[in-house]
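can u pls check wat happens w/ flavin-adenine dinucleotide
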Amino acid sequence: MTRVPAARDVQRLWAWRAGGYRCACTVESGLVHISRDHVVAVRRRAPDVTRISDLLAAGPSTSFEFMPPRSDVGEQRLRTALSELRPLDPSFVSVTYGAGGSTRSRTHGIVVDLLDDFTPMAHLTTWGHERDELADIIRSYHDRGVRNILALRGDPPRNEPDLPIGDLANAIDLVRLVREITGDDMAVGVAAQPQVHPSSPDRATDRRHLAAKLAEADFGITQFFFRTEDYLRMMEELADLGCTTPVLPGIMPITNVGQIERFAAMSGHPVPADLAARLHEVADDPDEVRRLGVEEATRLCRDLLDGGAPGIHYYTLNTSTATREIHANLGSLATRD
Ligand code: FAD
């Protein structure tokens, strides 16, 4: 029997779980007792899959977001990214969901497959869905051992702009549906917009809706952004409204000037002018763009973690190199051990 300080061993537990092991432990007078005799190998992680809300309590998290591939080449790219990011021992990985489109069932298949090697989170959007359809999807994830859902409203797909919104008007209604079906079995995350959702009438209204949604969820994840102060200001505004739910900053490493400007325009939040100007100065040199992108993202992540962010959620776009470089630059700041 080993006697060790509790906080330290909570972290060790995670390390063991990540290696495909679980162990029995008891807590007594603030100390964790771990018996190595009780350490058992588990072939599949599904029955033990972690709720992200529990995980965030154990120290800074690192998580990666992927998209369902649309082709064989895309499938290979995703597999490569997953195998290259696996050694970073992510706290969880997530898979996006497309409203009304063909990626719906692919998201489900990928998330369930990921149970073998990761703690996965399924994105789910309400747009275009009847309530019963959403309930079936939630039950199906729950039955297969998935324990984390990112509850989103979504938007009408670009190729189906007239797709009606569906039975649930907002993400908070989906949070409630997950709770109704699974109780506290599943952790539920929601989206947050440091620079305010583009369709919100004003900042105060946006923050009120966000605080109400976060109050019923377990955690939030932000849209990507480029300035630490945008995240810190949002967290202050939420705290002023009495909301203390953890919110993970979402980071999009810049590797291509045209691509990031397209994504930024789509999200309704342009790249800040000073950063855009620096990127345009080197736009013809892909290596220099990457170097600047990694440098900027490293600085942003460091400031966010120093400022109290509970971890970093990377938008990987199904590639791994820039994410690995940023994670390596962060060193011990980003690790749970
Ligand atoms: P909501 O929380 O419903 O908010 C949408 C708007 O309605 C906001 O303006 C809000 O202020 C307002 N609002 C909220 N509650 C109320 C209320 N009770 N009454 C009136 N107004 C209200 N999209 C996808 O299609 N697939 C994905 O996989 C996906 N993943 C994402 C992951 C992250 C981390 C983030 C940040 C976004 C993601 N999105 C995804 C994008 C997201 O679906 C869009 O931003 C969408 O426009 C809003 O979704 P939401 O969940 O924030 O909606």
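Confidence is low (pLDDT under 50) at residues 1-47.
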